[in-house]
Amino acid sequence: MDQHRINYLLQRYAAGTLTDAERQELAQWLEQPGKEALAARIAAMMGEEKATSYTSHEQTSRETFGRIMSADKELRRSIQPARRRWLAAAAVLFLGISAGTGFLLNRAEKPAAVVQTTPVKLEKDPGRNTAVLYLADNSVVELDSAGNGLVAAQGGARVMLANGQVAYLPQPGDALHGPAYNRIATPRGGEFKIVLPDGTKVWLNAASSLKFPTAFTGAKREVELTGEAYLEVAEDKAHPFEVKIRDVNVSVVGTQFNIMGYEDESGIVTTLVSGAVRVTAPGNSPKMLSPGQHAVVENKTGALYVEKADVDDAIAWKNGIIHYERVNIRQIMRQVSRWYDVDVEYRGNVANMDFTCTVSRKDKLSKLIALLEMTGAVHFTMEHNTVVVQP
Fold it and tell me: SS3 letters for 4-36?
């Protein structure tokens, strides 16, 4: 059976669309000598196997695959149909490596009687709901330790904390004596939601910050962003909303969109979910986006262009999901560094490979690393707070 046929069957299995004939074909393939460890790994990823070693003989292989097949009905009932594409990517385990790099299945099979698998030791906790609020009077509020209720009152607004988000509410009778600016910042390993004075909702990803006024009083509603954020902008046609990220401006009236502009990434990417936005960058004509498109401003060249976007991928983080669809290992590890608050070091010739996988943002780092390691193309160790990546 060739590699494309194997991948096709596994993808259809994970999506729950195998025919009876295809199910039998896949079962027979997994029962072949040397496939027992792979069958057990699939079962383990589906939550059916906990052991770290598996006996290699036909009966074990058949039993393992049987458990996989019996497990998928319950799994499909418990997951939303819209997530099944991501489930397939995670369950298949054949994390799509770019051309020229061998798949796990292409590696030489070991005929040994027992195949040992070593659990990954990177038990690093995921990020959490935490941020720091810098007020106009130079005071600082740790939002993960502040209790619910009034945080501050300044610049025509009451700053309230409730249910893990901070909100700016108008304070009648408080005259403004000029603009008062606040800044909210998330650390590595943090995320937070804020409701701005106009009702705009902003979700900040890890290692990000947002500077904004305590009340919008001018012709435009202007904020400054670093890092990444998802915004649901309150509609106000008389006062356009503008996000500035470095020298790029994104202007909207009322819409939902994501901006990713970390300085260590290749560019600033604005992905439109609904409504319309205009993206302006020096040396380029402004670009209007329609839903389902993204605008990219390249860091190196400054070029601005518009492409069709995978919106689900772009906002997966906001929905509590880590999802990679043919993403380069170094880009993956940059995101790992920000969300799990770890440093990353490369040793040896770690090739430029693309991977596809999905886990929850609530999962420990070990689960994501285990998925990547199953390709056999990369391996990981942890030294203090540094994840070491090796071929």
Answer: HHHHHHHHHHHHCCCCHHHHHHHHHHHCCCCCH
